[in-house]
Write a structure and sequence with these properties.
It is built from ten helices and 13 strands. Helix 3 runs parallel beside helix 10. The protein starts with 14 loop residues before the first helix and ends with a helix. 36% of the residues are buried.
Length: 358
């Protein structure tokens, strides 16, 4: 089914970046899925299975530069159902994490306006993991909303809401039951036409069940959690973008066993505003908030004003980001070197072609 660009989440941000591609005869589409090097895109003209040009594929300095779900691309159709992608437009927002086992960025979703962070009230609830998701959303400048699913299994769902808002009083929290349909309308109201939301969380937390409810159809396969430990199975194996009926867009994502942070060293602070505010009361400007006398943060931990587990999680995330920043600096130097080598080679090829033409 074809959609208008507006229904697909088009924003004025992309207009100046698309002008040249349109003038060259290309069309615009949004990436809905990626499967083993093949892309699925949707545009005003319809849906296509697409491949990248060799220049895009081999010119990318890292996998993060290639199109990801949610990206806008410039394409040219060569059959009724197949197309070639020639360029990816700059991203408004990028939800990323550190790739498992590598010092490399893994893009979870592109051009997202809203992030639903879903946790289940069947032993999946974890404040420390939630803090990581909030940090990821903050780094991407994406609005986070916490969805506490399976509220029908909890004796007192309000108690869990209170725990979330204790770490961030301004955080939006919604309790629901995706399986029973409770509060689904409230979730849908947060995704008006043209707005893009992504949903993240552990396997078995109910992400695909929520998507099916919002779509009004069984589009994503779902599985029950294991009874012994309430852990989910990886039912969703790839990221997929769906246009909701009479509403916006939702990107469904696989469950994450690891959530390594990706971003600048100050990313952790964006998810810990209470700690950032406490830091202003430290005696020394260069306080590391670890051993110093006169540290307002340590004093708050000692008095019980600041939860020690929250403080320890903050320190752990900061250390991860500091290490990552050192690694990123090395990677940037390496990428710059590769870029300069490629530019030198291109100049050599062009010069040889000119001499041959003469």
């Amino acid at each position: 089914m074809p959609y208008t660009l507006s229904q697909l989440g088009w924003h004025d941000f992309f207009s100046p970046h698309s002008t040249e591609h349109i003038q060259q005869g290309f069309h615009l589409a949004r990436v809905t899925n990626e499967q083993r090097g093949h892309y699925y895109i949707v545009s005003e003209a319809g849906s296509y299975r697409a491949e990248l040009t060799g220049k895009m594929l081999f010119g990318a300095l890292s996998p993060a530069e290639l199109p990801k779900v949610g990206d806008w691309v410039a394409y040219m159709a060569h059959t009724e159902n197949e197309a070639i992608v020639h360029a990816v437009l700059p991203r408004r927002t990028t939800l990323s994490r550190k790739a498992a086992g590598e010092d490399e960025e893994q893009v979870i979703a592109a051009n997202v306006d809203l992030l639903f962070i879903m946790q289940g009230l069947d032993r999946d609830f974890n404040l420390r993991r939630l803090e990581r998701y909030i940090a990821m959303a903050s780094a991407a400048r994406v609005e986070p909303i916490v969805l506490l699913n399976k509220a029908d299994l909890a004796e007192d769902p309000a108690a869990f809401t209170a725990q979330v808002q204790a770490i961030d009083p301004s955080m939006q929290v919604m309790t629901l039951s995706a399986l029973n349909g409770t509060s689904i309308g409230d979730v849908l109201a947060r995704i008006p036409e043209g707005r893009t939301a992504a949903v993240v969380g552990s396997s078995g937390v109910g992400k695909s069940t929520l998507l099916n409810r919002l779509l009004g159809a069984q589009r994503q396969h779902t599985s029950a959690v294991r009874e012994d430990d309430q852990r989910g199975r990886h039912t969703t194996t790839s990221r997929s973008l769906f246009v909701l009926p009479d509403a916006g867009i939702l990107i469904d994502t696989p469950g994450m066993r690891e959530l390594g942070l990706w971003g600048d060293s100050d990313q952790a602070g964006t998810a810990f505003q209470d700690i950032e505010e406490l830091m202003e009361g430290c005696k020394y400007r260069d306080c590391t908030h670890t051993v110093e006398a006169g540290c307002a943060v340590l004093a708050a931990v000692e008095s019980g004003e600041l939860d020690e587990k929250r403080y320890q999680n903050y320190r752990k995330m900061q250390k991860e980001l500091e290490y990552l920043n050192d690694s990123q600096a090395y990677i940037r130097r390496k990428e710059q070197t590769m870029k300069e080598i490629r530019q030198s080679y291109d100049r050599f090829v062009k010069g040889r072609k000119k001499r041959t033409d003469k």
